[in-house]
Amino acid sequence: MKNKLKVLRAERNWTQADLASALDVTRQTVNAIEKGKYDPSLPLAFKVAALFAMPIEQIFSYAEDA
Amino acid sequence: MVCLWLNPRTDKYHQLTDQDVKEPLLLFKWGIGCKGYFTLCNRSLTLSRNENGSTDLNTRINQSSVRLFLGTMGWVATTAVLAFGPKLWWEFDPSVTLIAIVLNLITGAIMLVAQYRHLMSMDELQKQTHLEAMAITLGVTAIVTVTYGNLEPAGVLADTRPTNILFVTGITYIVAVIVLWMRRTSE
After folding, report:
1. How many other CB atoms are there within 10 angstroms of residue B17's CB atom?
2. B interface toward A at CB cutoff 8 Å?
3. ipTM value of the model?
4. From the list A18, A44, A48, which residue is nearest B14 (CB)?
5. Following DSSP, what letter does each residue of chain A receive, concatenated?
6. Which of B20, B124, B154, B180 is the most exposed place for a label (fewest CB within 10 A)?
7. Could you report the per-residue pLDDT of B69-102, keeping only the tens digit for each?
């Protein structure tokens, strides 16, 4: 999966720790998602979408090789 | 209206959009079942507890770690009593030994519940890392147990003790957690 988490976070001038705090996960989890090393669960993906007030498909997209 | 969020962990302020603040100064909805309250504190908005009463991740993990530590210590203590007590303290009295066995099983169950709750208190990446480490540990333990169990009949070792397998289990689990976590979270 690909995602725009890093871009969206940067647009809001949030640190990984800020985003992690809002999502109730560790900073390492946010980092792993941003780098594509970990695909978030559906509830967490929806939480991200709600936080950025965007449709989930605008943040996450399926990529077979990622 | 400009609303600020003071992140208690980083001590930094963040501006909230109108969409974030459904009920200004009171409620910030950020997802399904995740609502944080903002209260006026030192002329700023401060994030307090989630609406469902749960605390933040660090607090949850710290609390469950303390419970796990206490549960483990209780089990270790009753195991020591069961191991050394019959010979040193009550001269193999069967009724006292039975009580020691029951206490050991009860504290073992308490430790197990504490371990489960500790796992459930983690965030999803931590949880997945630990579950994968447990799967690896189960496989390694099974293989080593079979091989180790055959060492005595094969004449390689004169005395084998099943409890030695616990060392393999513990070390494998620790190494697996560290390696899996570092692979996913390396910067």
Report:
1. 10
2. 7-10, 12, 14, 17, 19-20, 29-32, 34, 47, 50, 56-57, 123-126, 128, 181, 183-185, 187
3. 0.91
4. A18
5. -EE-HHHHHHHTT--HHHHHHHHTS-HHHHHHHHTTSSPPPHHHHHHHHHHHTS-HHHHEE--TT-
6. B154
7. 999 999 999 999 999 999 999 999 999 999 999 9
Is 1.20.120.450 the CATH classification of the domain at A2-52?
A: no
Domain limits, chain A? 2-52
pTM, full prediction: 0.74
How remote is the C-alpha of B7 from its chain's centroid?
26
Which tokens in the block code for residue B101?
């066995």
Exposed e or buried b per residue across A3-35, where buried means at least 16 C-beta atoms within 10 angstroms of its C-beta: bbbeebbeeeebbbebbbbbbbbbbbbbbbbbe
Tens digit of each residue's pLDDT (9 = 90 or more) over A19-55 = 999 999 999 999 999 999 999 999 999 999 999 999 9
Tokens coding B20: 């974030």
- Total H helices, total E strands in chain B: 4, 6
Of A53, A64, A43, nearest in space to B127 by CA: A43
